[in-house]
Design brief:
The structure is a single chain. The chain contains 26 helices and 33 strands. With 846 residues, the protein is of the alpha+beta class. A hairpin with a 5-residue loop joins strand 17 and strand 18. The longest helix is centred in the middle third of the chain and has 24 residues.
Length: 846
């Protein structure tokens, strides 16, 4: 009887253990959200409960889709979410001020035989996904004991220097495989191999969980598995000094923790701002089978670059001539290499001090001076926090310099953005959609007094390039209304004068034209004409602009005159103001004088004028740009005492490089020399020449490219247009990209998707690119050879129709069509290559 009771008690306790199994801090594999941690798993008779913790910045938004699931790794059987504690399902949740949120998700009952599960959001795990969640203690296949697993920090300088994981190790910025592992009670040696390299690390267990590790058993270094503040100074951590610009490159590499092929991550995308060209360049690093990646990136000044991948979306700080190694997929953001310290320091202080929602709720009740004071107050608070960190030695000299400049230029950029923020808040309050360009409200223009924070020292500080905020600040300054020429016209005689400087030989017809134009100019400069222009010039310009459509139609038939325009307006009961009537009366009187009669004779040469302008379009564009630049530079000195120098060199170079780099239109040697002479900073002048040479080389290389098809656009309209284009790709899933040559984000997206197109080259998928007439034909022809896919250049009307059909308010815009040409998704949105591949493969199988 006692034996029976004992057996039943054992059975009962065994049942209880399984029915209430608890796994604290379970071991997990690869995760696409390093800030998401599973703290605990409870398994009962009826449910499986996962306790999560999210560590993110305050205000971070996230939601748990109703399709969230856990899956048995062995059987692929999914259990979908039933309920949650601490947060609602399928609704937006916001991280509080503490930066931490805890919650539970309840799923169905797991079979007791399940050893590993996966966690995924949505049916295909398109968002957060955690692989290989262990439900039992499993031995490390490498033989590394549990205590030694993880990341280890040098106790003398707090640097991360070595990590031991299940299948590989990290050491000296490389990923190593395990060779011989000889450990007994935590002491012994670990041999690591990497291709033809081999190293042995000797290990000795210390006190309080510390280990002594090193390549020489007689001089081991103390390591801890918890990072502690290091106050020891670094000789290489001196503030940046001039010269800051130099031609070089940086090596960015890293490892995706717990990487496996099932993660389906093939590339890491890195986006680099180029302040001289104004472009953002995309570089793609390929991920090896063991999760390692490395890329050499051209870099001519130290600054942040943006990393995009399913496992990490954020910034890292690269320095010319130096290396950086980053651990991805771990809850800790860790760095090795020569740029490790500044990156480790920078993440200690990552303020998000300018809250646009808060500003939007307040700015309509603020006067400009109040808004400026509001911005400055926020910046001062952040500067105080930074100073506190510096005094505590929690941040080094370089990182302090970067962050200080970042706060300063962010602050001034926000001040420059007053008008934009005000109008945005006005739109939001009055529910005015973005598509509606014109609104019935005009705010007061800001005067130069408002911009008293713009100084020569601030604008021409070369060292400021180390913070990307300086680039954004210059961009705002460059397009400030007060320093921009509102309208620019270039006369035929100005073009002729520039051509003469360049020793151009005029044709006989051009010489005759110039004689006519000189006579016409002299007539326009008579005292009577000057007096008329002085009194009625502004009214005249506004009048013709107001009735531009009518003027254009009349001019088509060589039937235009001010008198005929006036008669047309009267006949069609179009109102004419008293001020306009006075101008028209004066114009009629002027028309009776000899000069206007003579001037009218020159209207017969209008076709020759058009031909001349078209032939010398490049010179006209150059003079247009020169006038704008001269006006801008003059106003910068007059209004703000900002002298011609580094800032204006950047502005000029961006204008010039927009043509060279963005439009793939190189300058002639003659024009290049003229531009270089206008630049004061030698590095920038030399950089423009190199950019020009690279564009020439790219155009030549593109002539040999294959894999792109320039199609003739079907001569149809309306619904038939899109259907006609899709007919060619019947049986294939079609990814349609609406883009333009001048659109930076479009070109960046095209570059990012290149590896996916190569990977899916044999699949039933077509990549179709649609642009319109705003993409200059020469630029378009030079650019598309490097964009593999099917290309169409639409007319303005065709583009407008499709823009209406797919509700396109901006580009890039993506549409997904099925194998029969049907529209599956009219607004696909941006996806990572991995997400897009999943979506395309799903549609191919349908």
């Amino acid at each position: 009887m006692k034996k029976t009771i004992t057996f039943l008690l054992l059975l009962f306790f065994s049942y209880q253990i399984y029915s209430q199994k608890m796994i604290e801090n379970p071991k997990t594999g690869f995760s696409t959200a390093s800030y998401l941690t599973i703290k605990k798993i409870e398994i009962t008779n009826t449910a499986t409960v996962l306790t999560f913790e999210i560590s993110q910045y305050a205000g971070f938004r996230f939601s748990i889709p109703k399709e969230t699931y856990i899956k048995d790794v062995a059987s692929n059987e999914k259990l979908f979410i039933k309920s949650a504690e601490g947060i609602p399902i399928n609704d937006m949740n916001v991280i509080p001020e503490s930066g931490v949120t805890n919650y539970k998700l309840i799923f169905g009952k797991l079979d007791k035989s399940v050893a590993k599960i996966e966690y995924g959001e949505a049916n295909d795990g398109d968002n957060w996904h955690i692989y290989d969640i262990a439900l039992h203690d499993l031995p490390n296949p490498s033989g590394i004991n549990t205590e030694l697993e993880g990341n280890w920090y040098n106790t003398e300088n707090a640097n991360w220097e070595v990590s031991f994981y299940d299948t590989n190790a990290i050491y000296k910025s490389q990923v190593w495989q395990y060779g011989a592992v000889s450990l007994k009670k935590g002491n012994g040696s670990v041999t690591l191999t990497n291709k033809d390299q081999k190293v042995t690390l000797f290990v000795k267990k210390g006190k309080a969980g510390n280990y002594f590790i090193g390549e020489n058993p007689k001089s081991l270094i103390a390591f801890a598995n918890t990072k502690k503040l290091a106050v020891k100074s670094d000789n290489d951590d001196k503030p940046y000094e001039l010269p800051i610009l130099k031609n070089d490159s940086a090596v960015y590499s890293g490892y995706i923790k717990n990487y496996s092929k099932q993660n389906n991550i093939k590339t890491i995308s890195i986006h680099i701002d180029d302040i001289i060209t104004g472009e953002q360049n995309a570089q793609i690093a390929k991920v090896d089978e063991n999760g390692f990646f490395s890329i050499k990136i051209p870099l001519y000044y130290p600054h942040e670059v943006w990393v995009r991948s399913p496992v990490f979306n954020g910034s890292v700080f690269l320095e010319p001539g130096k290396t950086l190694f980053q651990l991805l997929g771990d809850k800790n953001v860790l760095f090795m290499g020569e740029s490790a310290k500044i990156n480790s320091d920078l993440i200690q202080f990552n303020p998000r001090w300018f809250n646009y929602d808060e500003v939007s709720s307040k700015i309509l009740d603020m006067k400009p001076a109040d808004y400026k004071a509001y911005c400055q107050n926020l910046a001062n608070k952040e500067m105080d926090k930074l100073e506190t960190l510096k005094k505590a030695n929690a941040i080094g000299n370089k990182a302090y310099q970067v962050k200080k400049l970042n706060i300063q230029y962010d602050n001034y950029e926000h001040m420059l953005d007053y008008s934009s923020n005000f109008m945005s808040a006005y739109r939001n309050k009055n529910k005015i959609p973005r598509e509606q360009r014109e609104i019935d409200f005009k705010m007061d223009s800001l005067t130069a007094d408002y911009y008293d924070f713009i100084t020569d020292e601030l604008a021409n500080n070369q060292l400021a390039v180390i913070t990307n905020s300086y680039r954004y600040y210059l961009n705002q300054l460059q397009y400030l209304d007060l320093i921009n020429l509102k309208s620019v016209s270039t006369s035929i005689l100005e073009i002729a004068a520039e051509l003469q400087k360049r020793n151009y030989s005029f044709t006989e017809q051009e010489q005759e034209l110039l004689v006519y134009m000189k006579e016409a100019e002299d007539l326009q400069n008579t005292p009577v004409q000057k007096e008329f222009q002085k009194k009625y010039g502004k009214i005249s310009s506004a009048f013709y602009t107001k009735h531009q459509k009518i003027v254009t139609e009349m001019a088509k038939g060589d039937n235009f005159s001010t008198l005929k325009l006036e008669q047309y307006l009267i006949k069609n009961n179009i109102p004419i103001s008293n001020e306009e009537k006075e101008f028209l009366m004066a114009a009629r009187e002027l028309a009776k004088s000899p000069s206007p009669k003579k001037l009218k004779q020159y209207t017969s040469i209008s076709k020759n004028l058009d031909s001349f302008y078209k032939k010398h379009e490049a010179i006209s564009a150059y003079l247009y740009s020169e006038k704008r630049t001269d006006f801008r530079n003059k106003k910068l000195v007059e209004l703000f005492n900002v002298k011609v120098g580094f800032a204006t060199d950047i502005m000029t170079s961006q204008d010039v490089c927009d043509k060279i780099v963005s439009q793939l239109t190189p300058l002639s040697e003659e024009d290049l020399v003229i531009v270089q002479k206008s630049i004061q900073t030698p590095f920038i002048a030399d950089y423009i020449r190199k950019a020009n040479e690279q564009t020439i080389a790219k155009i030549e290389a593109n002539k040999k490219q294959t894999g792109f098809v320039l199609n003739e656009t079907p001569k149809t309209e309306g619904d038939e247009l899109f259907a006609s284009i899709m007919k060619k790709y019947k049986g294939k899933v079609v990814y349609v990209d609406f883009w333009a040559t001048w659109c930076g984000p479009c070109r960046s997206g095209i570059e990012e998707i290149k590896p996916l197109k190569e990977e899916m080259a044999g699949e039933n998928v077509a990549f179709v690119y649609l642009t319109n007439q705003t993409s200059p034909e020469n630029t378009y022809s030079a650019m598309i050879p490097e964009i593999k896919g099917e290309h169409y250049r639409l007319s303005a009307d065709q583009w407008n129709y499709l823009a209406g059909k797919f509700n396109i308010s901006g580009i890039p815009h993506y549409v997904l069509a099925g194998k029969n040409g049907e529209v599956i998704n009219p607004k696909l949105g941006h996806m990572s290559n991995e997400q897009l591949k999943t979506e395309l493969e799903k549609r191919i199988k349908e």
